[in-house]
User: What shape does this take?
Amino acid sequence: HVRLVESGGGSVQSGGSLRLSCEYSEYTYGSYCVAWFRRGPGEGRTLIGYIDDMGRVTHDDNREGRFTVSQGNAKNTLYLQMNNLKPEDTGVYFCAGSDPTTCDFNYWGRGTQVTVSS
Assistant: This one.
């Protein structure tokens, strides 16, 4: 069972930056993916980007280049750097882990709230 814990959310004014962190339990075998998702008010979760066990990063919706997914120096840490934040970035941000040997996201953190005011 993969455990993921997000941190770093909060309230910020438009144009500001935040860096979210996700600490996840170590995968002991097989390939895997760990991702950031966003859920806006009244919306479903959308994929921002993910990293695989080889350290390769794929961005799906990087919010016009303002968001960057990266791996921390500790292998079981994932970051989401968010720059030039806009009110429409407001939402709950989740870290998700895949089943081993897949990139199917079935493990979720509790999420961290990001609120951007204009």
Notes: The chain has no helices and eleven strands. The CA atoms of residues 26 and 76 lie 6 Å apart.
